[in-house]
Amino acid sequence: MALLEVSGLGLAYGPIRAAEDISLQVGADEIVAIIGGNGAGKTSLLKGIAGLLTPTTGTVRFSGEDITRLAPHRRVGLGIALSPEGRQVFPDQSVADNLVLGAYARNFARGELEAEIEEKFALFPRLAERRNQPALTLSGGEQQMLAIARALMSRPRLLLLDEPSLGLAPIIVRDVFRIIETLRGRGISILIVEQMANLALKVSNRAYVIESGRITLDGKSADLLHDPRIRAAYLGVSHG
Ligand SMILES: Nc1ncnc2c1ncn2[C@@H]1O[C@H](COP(=O)(O)OP(=O)(O)OP(=O)(O)O)[C@@H](O)[C@H]1O
Ligand SMILES: [Mg+2]
């Protein structure tokens, strides 16, 4: 049984269809990538999984349980955490307080909460040095790390990462992907949405391509890296 199982999912904003008939799975300890261009439906799909957008069709199952209509905070409680597109850290709150807010759906005892925060600071040393600064004073890369650290505060079994590279300089993107790599083997599955297809395919086990709200291709990431359709459309390499 897959940890996450999405079947026939349809998503819409009123009359505007964002995704149709999406089926995908994420297994335990797997990193799975979603690749697709602007407006393909990637963020909408993550919102559907996190409970921020109610599906028009289909089901979302987590650990065998049907969570299609479950409220977002209940999903956090079950072990699904979202690091949203554009990071959305709380700008006026300190780095440490942003982390505290990430744990809102867990009823940690005080000592447990402290330990959880220190564990995040060990993983993201740059955040530790800035723990008392308001989040708005962080660089883009640091804010991205804070968004990921905040999501990890709820001890997720599934981490949803929406465009972690967005707006970051290449050297910082590398740091962020190095962090994602270190999460592998820690008992966390990751579903990562990325426009930087090469990075997403290198860090993931499997990937799905989404175009105009539908999955058009899926497979092992190592295979997709060499697939001429992927190379032409997403890796800036022409055929032949
Ligand atoms: N709040 C909204 N209201 C109405 N339509 C929306 C809303 N959010 C997204 N859409 C539409 O849904 C479709 C999918 O958008 P979505 O944000 O999921 O794409 P995306 O793949 O994440 O794109 P990007 O790479 O630019 O982040 C688009 O056509 C978009 O215009
Ligand atoms: Mg998006």
Could you describe the 3D structure shown?
The protein is an alpha/beta fold and 240 residues long. It has a single domain (4-234), classed as Rossmann fold. The chain is 37% helix and 26% strand. The protein has 10 helices and 10 strands. The strands form 2 sheets. Strands 6-7-8-3-9-10 form a 6-stranded mixed beta sheet, with helices on both faces. It has a 4-stranded antiparallel beta sheet with strand order 2-1-4-5, with helices on one face. Helix 7 (170-183) links the parallel strand 7 (158-162) and strand 8. Helix 3 packs parallel to helix 6. The longest helix is centred in the middle third of the chain and has 14 residues, at 110-123. The termini are far apart. The chain binds adenosine-5'-triphosphate and magnesium ion. Residues 13, 16, 18, 36, 38-44, 85, 195 line the site of adenosine-5'-triphosphate.
Concise synopsis of the structure shown:
This protein is 37% helix and 26% strand.
The CATH C-level name is Alpha Beta
Largest sheet at a glance?
A: 6 strands, mixed
**Bound ligand species:** adenosine-5'-triphosphate, magnesium ion
Major beta sheet, strand line-up: 6-7-8-3-9-10
CATH superfamily: P-loop containing nucleotide triphosphate hydrolases
Q: Return the CATH topology.
A: Rossmann fold
Oligomeric form of this entry? single chain
